[in-house]
Amino acid sequence: MPFPAHDLSAPFNFAQEEEKVIQYWREIDAFKTSLKLSEGRPEYTFYDGPPFATGLPHYGHLLAGTIKDIVTRHAHVSGYHVTRRFGWDTHGLPVEHEIDKKLGITGRDDVMKMGIDKYNEECRAIVMRYASEWRATVERMGRWIDFDNDYKTLNLSFMESVWWAFGELFKKGLVYRGLKVMPYSTGCFSPISNFEAGLNYKDVNDPAVTVAFPLVDDRTTSLLAWTTTPWTLPSNLALCVHPEYTYIKIYDQERDQNFILHEGLLRTLYKDPKKAKVKKIGTFKGSDMKGWRYVPLFEYFTERAPAFGEDDHRIAIANGILTPEEMPPCPIDDAGRFTSEVPDFAGQYVKDADKGIQKALKAKGRLVVQSTLNHSYPFCWRSGTPLIYRAIPVWFVRVSPVVDQLVANNKETRWVPQNIGDGRFGNWLINARDWNISRNRFWGTPIPLWASEDMEEIVCIGSVEELERLSGATGITDLHRDKIDHITIPSQQGKGQLKRIEEVFDCWFESGSMPYAQQHYPFENKELFEQTFPADFVSEGIDQTRGWFYTLLVLSTHLFGRAPWKNLIVTGLVLAADGKKMSKSLRNYPDPNIIINTYGADATRMFLVNSPIVRGDNLRFREEGVREVVSRVLLPWLNAFRFFLAQVALHRKTGDFDFRYNPHAPVSNNVMDRWILARCQSLIKLVREEMDAYRLYTIIPRLLDLVDELTNWYIRFNRARLKGSDGREDTIEALNTLFETLLTLCRTMSSYTPFLTENIYQSLREFIPEDAVAGDTRSIHFLLFPEVKEEYFDAVIERQVRRMQTVIELTRNIRERHNLSLKTPLRELLVYHKDEEWLEDAKSLQRYIQSELNVRDIIFTSDEQLAGVRYRAVADWGVLGRKLRKDLARVKNALPNLSSDEVKNYIETGKITVDGIPLVEGDLTVQRYIELPESHEGQYATHTDNDVVVRLDIQVHQELMGEWITRELIQRVQKLRKKAGLQATDDVLVLHEFESGDGEELLFAIEEHKETIRRSLRTVPVDASQKEGHQIVIIEEEVEVAETRFMLSLAKL
């Protein structure tokens, strides 16, 4: 079916019109057709970071999808073949956390009771819960991507490639098992990696306690330790001091006790140490204190808690308190609750036990200071629970040895903005630590290590074929735990059967493997992957600097020795309008679907992209911002297009001609035609250059400029030409220019606003002659990006129009300040500039200036005396103050007293002395202005941009009023026609009806300017009494012109 014809008489609802475009794309299978049309072109590679389908898409996803769509669409129209596959993250804690909440699972034992197979089936059942909603939203946003050929991290092909990648790392000696204190999520019952621990910090109030540890050999003296985690004290084994620090022994008179603490920490005990009743009685180096024994806080294990702190654990091993392989006391379960090893607090969540532990310490006389501290603390980014640090045996991939290579590989890539790649990400790489890739969980890709009980013999499996060959198992079609954990491999060292270790991969390892795993590399598509790696482009949010971007780079560096992307756009975060994080519970943001269905996807896309978020800063999402895109960009653009259609229809109806676009028309001689076409070429050039540099944020402002230039300058100034005022040939030339501008806008901006450009293009298509070599032109998105037409550029014309615009804008400002409508004719405008070329440029477009400003006479002059031009100097006092310091006040006081000639001489020489203080070029800013004599103040008004000066006669002259009344009347008729839903081609009778004795001034103006009225309305208003019986009134309305109210009506002829 053809695209529905544009109905000029109907209001244009952007969101509803987008639905028509989507339907049309479905009918022509637009995305797949575009891929087929581009086969054989060079390949442009794009990697899509996989989201989870367990949640609905939010504004962050809309932003990421928009950026990815813009870049890949532009690559397609720039002559590339761009494969775009959607991907799904289906494993890991995000999925398991949902099931744990649903089934009330509180730890590993609960899963084992129900069976891993049943647990995994529960997980599998929800991984694509919102897939249909995702697909609908992605399509509605205009993003073209392949959902039918998507990849999922749970697919056998993907998981096998992950095994291959891990196997390669294992062969290189980059995998090891270690007992380390790791960030641990009690909500997800699993350790997480160090980079995940940095994803969700919150400001919280925690207890801050100072605890006493009496010395065994001197019970009147206590070592003091400070902590914000009282729950770690039941498993305390040692206290730690720095060997080089100085510690002091003090006597506290009020407590009648001796305390030993660091010399700089007296304020932890006393608000004002100078006023405290204490006496210093000894000094020690930390090295002197080694081996001292103290009375334990609790009798559970006989301040360090080496199971709950990385430094604590390291020091405990270094000092022989623990062996490297020995598990320190860790009396908590998977959910962070105390076990029976700590009977007084058994079953309590560690954070909840803080109060009880403090109470117990107080009862023992060990609690010296009890307070709270507000500080930033890491929380699990999945479950929202506070992280704890816990000693646990985990599997690592070595990162430290390749830090320099990571940094070097990253420097070979382009980041937008670059400062995040060099700064935030670069600094993270420099401090990168070995990566914990194991999770003590169930729903994930199992780590393919089969080991003997003593862990002395370990076999790493890199493929299904290898597992079947070594184990003797056959027909393996699923690699999840419940399908392979029972498989054993005979030992080659006489150690019986090797069993798979229990851990699964961190899901970040899987998403970091997507470049090759989505292709099932190296088992399939080997040549294709190697030819298209690394990706030309990736993009995600700034949070992925410690997530996906990091894991992609680590794995790619280990496996291929290079970065996996060439160009990367990193975005900020989308926040609520109040600057807070978007929250469903707070309801502090509008539903994305409502926004899209109210204002349209194009407006939403443009608002997101034309914001600081594409430069890595955060964006406060405002519904008003989307609405402004419609009113400031899309609506004027649409109105320019509809104006074109209306004029074409008018000329067709009147029989003048049936317009057809001539792409090979000679360059127009009309200045405004050549100017707007040159501006189009500037847009094409800018979009190509900026997209090549991946600077999306520079495009929309330039589009806004061109839409403004098209509507408020080109069409406004050429309305009469387009209506036919200057003859048939000139009208066709103007329409051809307007058509080419509209078509260029569509072709240039199709990647940014895919819906409106498609909608407008479908109506423009009927005016484009058939071209046998054009190929499939059914969609704007099948056309290549336009080439710059160098012959359209004309620096002189662009300069002339720019100067004309300056005169017009300065003079409009005067009219606005004095409440003088542009419809009111004024007598004289004087334009002063010192440069004759400047004046000649403006003078060459005098006709446009007179028409737009509605002035009868214009004087262009460089004569300062004639114009009354004077000079004054002003300064940026902040900048000048740093130079002059104490002399600033003298200059400030004397500057207003400088004569105009002195300031003018400063322009010429670059030197001036103000109150004896010499100043040079750049110290002052010179302003030109016109000094009006008192006798002329009511007659003239002036304005300047410090370069050109204009003086406008602001008196309303009666002989010019007839022109103003005529224009006002024409405007009222045109508004009434629009309200009646009439098209430009509909001829009607215009009737007026005045109260007795009224309207004399208007009737005189109608008679005097009837030819002007006829050219605009194709008729002249007549008295209502002249209406004949068969002429039916369509619409009537009371209007006011020149303070006269009367009835204005339209009747069918």
From TrEMBL:
Residues 21-617 form the Aminoacyl-tRNA synthetase class Ia domain. Coiled coil: none annotated. It catalyses: tRNA(Ile) + L-isoleucine + ATP = L-isoleucyl-tRNA(Ile) + AMP + diphosphate. Its EC number is 6.1.1.5. PROSITE patterns: AA_TRNA_LIGASE_I (PS00178). It comes from the Eukaryota. InterPro entries: aa-tRNA-synth_I_CS, aa-tRNA-synth_Ia, Anticodon_Ile_ABEc, Ile-tRNA-ligase, Ile-tRNA-ligase_type2, M/V/L/I-tRNA-synth_anticd-bd, Rossmann-like_a/b/a_fold, tRNAsynth_Ia_anticodon-bd. Belongs to the class-I aminoacyl-tRNA synthetase family. This is isoleucine--tRNA ligase. It comes from Somion occarium.
